[in-house]
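Researcher: Structure prediction, please.
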Amino acid sequence: MTTQFVLLSVTLILALVNVLWAAVSRNREVGLRYSGGPRDHDAPVPVGIVTGRLQRAQRNLYESLPLFIAAVLIAHAAGHDGPLSLYGAWAFTLARIAYLPLYAIGSKLRSVAWFVAVTGLLMVMAASVVPV
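Model: Predicted structure follows.
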């Protein structure tokens, strides 16, 4: 298995961590009785600040994750698992790992992490087309 596939696996684990962290945060706000039920009615309390951030971070990851998966798979299928795709995969994965807690605490550095992740994604996508 290539390092890019390992990093893709780590990113998928991160996606699960993000889902669980947001769910636990929301459960603390509304209680297990509401969360465990059918949720036919509005929640008893609005979404809190941190929970909202975690939910938005999750949506943000889900927007770019399919692109990252496809780029890694295409680069691999094309035989372009070179330095460009490797460094891009590292940048994407590490930046996404940093993005989640940065967003949760409300740091503006999350924008830097997002930019690094997008840059990494573009690197992997470029490697898919041009072997480097």
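Model: The longest helix spans residues 49-77.
Researcher: Thanks, that helps.
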